Amino acid sequence: MTVDKYPSRTGQSAQIMERKDPVVHRNPMFSEGPLSDEELNQFEKNGYLFLERVFNEDEVAIMKSELQRTMDENRHREADDVIKEPGSDEIRSVFDVHKDNGFFQALSKNARIVQAAQQILGSQVYITQSRINFKPGFKGKEFYWHSDFETWHVEDGMPNMRAVSCSIILTDNYEFNGPLMIIPGSQNWYVSCAGETPEDNYKTSLQKQEIGVPDNESMRWLVEQADGKIDRATGPAGSVLFFDCNVMHGSSGNISPYPRSNVFFVYNSIENKLEAPFSGQPPRPEFLANRENVEPITPIR
Amino acid sequence: MTVDKYPSRTGQSAQIMERKDPVVHRNPMFSEGPLSDEELNQFEKNGYLFLERVFNEDEVAIMKSELQRTMDENRHREADDVIKEPGSDEIRSVFDVHKDNGFFQALSKNARIVQAAQQILGSQVYITQSRINFKPGFKGKEFYWHSDFETWHVEDGMPNMRAVSCSIILTDNYEFNGPLMIIPGSQNWYVSCAGETPEDNYKTSLQKQEIGVPDNESMRWLVEQADGKIDRATGPAGSVLFFDCNVMHGSSGNISPYPRSNVFFVYNSIENKLEAPFSGQPPRPEFLANRENVEPITPIR
Fold first, then answer.
1. pLDDT at residue B171 is higher than 90
2. For A28-38, what is the mean pLDDT?
């Protein structure tokens, strides 16, 4: 049995542990790619990297129309991987889009992002989760602080911190429409959470996470380590945000009229495949954490 | 009977009307004061004015301790003018603090703010509402877009747009801890809201406003008039925000660890005293809208 390097929700009280894995896994075999040394150092320091206008306006226009088309196609499909607004047919997210044998599958292999993920993770990569998100203006919900890794480790059995999220933003992100907020440097600490994981936790946690939520004391401590700073991922459509699997992030609601949409891929190192969940419970469904037919991605230029 | 210059909640659908009152009521009798012509012009254009560090650190420290003391004194008092967190003894707001015969009464007469209000309103002024607010970090609630005047007109019988809110901020306001958001220029338009006012609306509207809420189409239109801009009142403790009674404002939630507190006075022109509410219903209680013993304030230097 694999040793649990990052225990959480074990019934103990909350505590902060040091990270046991590198943030940037430098590997000469995978040093070629779009990211400069300076950018890799920035990622290592802050736990994220915001690259402006990786995709141009025409590319963004195509992505937006493909996103709309995919949402429309799923409007009347009732399935776990389609997340709707409560009591409505309005779709907020569609998961597993990298398996569509079409546009989003090709996008998920785009060299501009895959090679960046390879540079960060120092290995070949595959996708462990993907989705497209559409959040309307006026009523965008807040997302409380969390480390993705905490959930992926406990509920999906991701053994090590060697995964990176890639968000392609399709709408301008402003200070006032609920941009992602990140505590820089927080990727270096693991907040082990109190409580235990209930069965089928994912059925409610996608809308509001109740378990695996960091305590206030740990959050204050993390912000102190960051000299009080909380960064926001703001910038124009077509920009790409890479963020470490363990960086503490969240977002406020969005009461502005500006909607937000993005494409979201999680790249995991091929050397960090999912095992049995550390919660001891059955794994979450495939659409949340890919286990079947995992193959390294060949980047498309 | 007074003519209703700004009908709203009359059962009609939402519509946008032009403002019928000046934003800055320039009056040579009240031109002396802390605000420069440029600042008055800015207020007139944007509907608000953010003045950095009107009060110094020592003054802020005293205000914070007086705020804490007042909150503590009211902790076990059950009254409408003390707003608690649902299901808890934690106090969020105490109203009517300008009648405390002590610190906040003196502060409400401070020449630095009263004379600014006189310059804007072009007359003597009195306080129609006051409160102190404490909003903790991590769980600060959002406040949806609204014009204060819409409520004050319909529910309190404030006849004309000739009032200004003054918020003395006691904690640093950042982009990430739910600062007040303002649509610059929106004070020039009145969004007449759909619906009608239920009885005792104030008992629920202080926590979440359901009636007198602008419709999405009007909100989009107001933001378009502002060239897409939404401003945020960010700055250090001790700063003062003046904003017009009709400017459209709101705030996102606050998941950051940074709490927020402020002292809030609404100055109304002595020539704009409250009449019978335009809803036709009984007036709201005195702590929300002062009617009794209204006297013009003599500023204290």
1. yes
2. 96
Structural element, H or E, at residue B50: strand B48-51
**Closest alpha carbon to A141 in A43, A232, A224, A253:** A253
Contact criterion met (CB below 8 Å) for A40 and A119: yes
Name the strand (E) or helix (H) holding B164: strand B163-169
CB neighbour list of residue B102: distance below 8 Å, 6 or more residues apart:
none
Cβ of B257 within 8 Å of Cβ of A232? The answer is no
- Could you tell me which CATH number the domain at A1-74+108-124+132-145+170-287 has? 2.60.120.620
Asked if A238 contacts A57 with a C-beta cutoff of 8 angstroms, the reply is: yes
The answer to whether residue B216 neighbours chain A at the CB level (below 8 Å) is yes
Q: Are B140 and B193 in contact (CB under 8 A)?
A: no
Mean pLDDT of B220-241: 98
Taking the CA of residue A258 and the nearest CA in chain B, the distance in Å comes to 9
Domain B15-269: give its CATH superfamily.
q2cbj1_9rhob like domain (2.60.120.620)
Alpha-carbon span A145 to A142, nearest angstrom: 10
Residues of A in contact with B254 (CB under 8 A): 252
Q: How many CB atoms lie within 10 A of CB B204?
A: 12
For the stretch B67-83, pLDDT in tens is: 999 999 998 888 889 98
What contacts A53, CB < 8 A, 6 or more positions away? A236, A238, A239
C-beta atoms surrounding B274 within 10 Å: 19
Distance from CA of A215 to the nearest CA of B (A): 10
Q: Write down the residue that tokens 């540079």 correspond to.
A: A119
Name the residue ranges covered by the structural domains of chain A: 1-74+108-124+132-145+170-287
pLDDT digits (tens, 9 = 90+) for A39-79: 999 999 999 999 999 999 999 999 999 999 999 999 888 88
Contact yes or no for A181/B138 (Cβ under 8 A): no
Q: What is the rounded average pLDDT for all residues in chain B? A: 94
Q: CB atoms < 10 A from the CB of B278, how many? A: 23
Confidence grade of residue A1 (pLDDT, cut at 50, 70, 90)? low
Q: Is B208 on the interface with A (CB under 8 A)?
A: no
Nearest residue, CB atoms, A176 vs list B137, B174, B230: B230
The sign one gets for the Cα dihedral A40, A42, A43, A44 is positive
**Contact between B235 and B52 (Cβ < 8 Å):** yes
Q: Is A176 on the interface with B (CB under 8 A)?
A: yes
pLDDT given at position B89: 77
Q: What tokens were used for B143?
A: 């406040």
Beta strands A48-51 and B125-135, pairing class:
unpaired
Non-local CB neighbours of B210 within 8 Å, separated by 6+ positions: B204
Q: Label residues A40-72 b or e (16+ Cβ within 10 Å = b).
A: bebbbebbbbbbeebbeeebbeebbebbeebbe
- Residue A78: how many other CB atoms lie within 10 Å: 8
CA distance A69 to A4: 42
Q: How far is CA B172 from CA A197, A232, B237, B238, B262, in A?
A: 37, 17, 5, 8, 10
pLDDT value of residue B120: 98
**What is the identity of the amino acid at A252?**
S
| Predicted confidence band of residue B1 (pLDDT cuts 50, 70, 90) | low
